[in-house]
Design goal:
Length: 139
């Protein structure tokens, strides 16, 4: 099995390329589609708009929510277009991870003034998040 940090690096590299080509100010859906395309060009295995079933007590929902991008069946990726990633964004990612088998999420903010500060990695096992500086330092 490939180390998840390998996939994080691939996603960050693809996101940086999309930002370099498009710049800030576009719609979230534009960045989602372009990032998915860039990842496919780089032969990164992804799934887009993945429906996730959810159960509440005795009520089963076929689609409780959707994951924007799922990379290598390992990392949940959420795209943001805001001035900064906020605690609420991280809380949403933690909820996604809690209700799936996935342990790692990556928030990418394409409207961050400095895209290198527009990444936040969220890990369920460690119950913490961190900026993806270690991966960015390797680029």
């Amino acid at each position: 099995m490939v180390d998840p940090s390998y996939w994080v690096g691939r996603v960050i590299g693809a996101a940086l390329e999309v930002m370099q080509q498009l710049g800030p100010g576009l719609l979230k859906s534009t960045y989602e589609e372009c990032l998915a395309h860039e990842l496919k060009l780089r032969k990164v295995p992804i799934r887009v708009n993945v429906p996730v079933p959810l159960s509440y007590k005795d009520h089963q929902m076929e689609e409780g929510f959707r994951l924007e991008l799922l990379v290598a069946n390992t990392i949940v990726v959420a795209i943001k277009t805001a001035a900064a990633i906020c605690d609420n964004d991280e809380a949403h990612m933690r909820s996604y991870l809690k209700h799936t088998k996935y342990k790692m999420g990556l928030l990418i903010n394409f409207h961050a003034p400095d895209l290198k500060k527009g990444f936040r990695q969220v890990e369920m096992e460690k119950n913490r998040s961190r900026m993806a500086y270690a991966v960015l330092a390797q680029l």
